[in-house]
Write a structure and sequence with these properties.
about 260 residues; 8 helices; six-stranded mixed sheet; two-stranded antiparallel ribbon; alpha/beta
Amino acid sequence: MKRGRSIVTFPSSRLATVDLGRYGRDRHTMFGLLEVDVTLARQSARLLRRSGRGGSFTAWMVKAVADSVARHREVHAVAVGRRKVVLFDSVDIALPVERAVESGRAPLPVLIRQAESRSVAEIGEAIDAATRQQLADERSYVLGSPTLSGAAMKLYYRLPGPLRLLAWRVLLGNAERAKRHSGTVTVTTVGGSGRTAGWILPTRSMHNLHVSLGPITRKPRVVGDRIVAREIMHLTVAFDHDVVDGVPARRFMEDLVAHVER
C-alpha cells in the first residue's frame, strides 16, 4: 500500500457479474421508468409480517412481480434460435443478496423458484435463509440450493475470461437449462427511504426481464380530490427488445403498477 491510496482485491464471485455484463452487451434494452405509489403496499407488508404471514417489503414486491409475470408470460420468454421463444408457466426469480465474501462484499444470487405459487412469507423465508447461509467455498456463492457442483464452480473461477464467457453461452444457450440454473427474471433492490430520488438503469442482464426496486421517497400525489403526501418508489423495468415488444411490455407494467398500488 502506497501512501494516500490502497489497493484491494475484489471477491472472485464478482467475476460472474463482469462476465454476465459481457454476455448481455449485444442486447437491445428497452426501459420503463415508473413512479409507483407503494403507501398501501408497505402497509399491507407490515400487516402480513405482524400476523406471521409475511416477510419484508422486498418479499412482498418479489411476489407482486411474480404474479404479474405469470399473467403476462411473454415478458420472461427465453429466445430459442432465430424466430422462436419459450413461454414458461412458472416464474423463477433471481434476487441478488449482498454478502461478505472473502475480503469484501458482493451480490450473490438466491433463486426463488415458482415465486408466483409461493406466499409472501415463504419468499421472505427464502431471502432470510440466504442472508444467514454460511459461505464455505465457491459453491456457496450461489445461495439456496446450488445447481452446480463445488468442483465446477471452482473451475469456473479459475478459467480465463474468454473461457468463462463461453461457459455462460453454453449454459444459457438452452432455455430449459438457463431456467434451471439462473431463473427467468432478475429483481434487484437498491431501495430504501431517504431524500435521494432516481432510477437505476440495469443495462446488462442475463434475463429478458429485469426489475429494479429503487429508492422510496415521500412526494405529493393526487388521491381523489386531495393532494397528499405518499410513499413513491422509483421502479425500473428493463426488457430485451429483441424478445419482448412494446405493447406486451406496456401491458405488464400497467398490470404491475395496478397490482402494487391496490
